[in-house]
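Progress against Task 2.4 (sequence-to-structure conversion) is shown through the following example record, which the project officer requested during the mid-term review.
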Amino acid sequence: HVELVESVVGSVQPGGPVRLSCAASSIIFSATAMNWYRQAPGKQRELVAGISSGGNTNYADSVKGRFTISRDNAKNTVYLQMNNLKPEDTAVYYCNAYIFRNFWGQGTKVTVSS
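Structure tokens generated for the chain above:
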């Protein structure tokens, strides 16, 4: 079955940086668009960044210039590099793949204190 496993590198301090990783299994990763979403307390889940199978990227306006999504097809892994973190980036971050339906990682809590 499809599995997305998230991990985090770095300690979360104002300004960052922090890198989230998401390792995928049981999918044709190189042919799959991957996304990062986040859900802040009391808010709806929102798209943070996406990367197509061909490497094209898109970002939410709130993170443009600060976050970078990338992928390593050899490792079946998608990354989210987060720089210049702000308290408003506090949320649970989810890796996502849509293959006939949405698949989600387990969620990684990122708390940025002011």
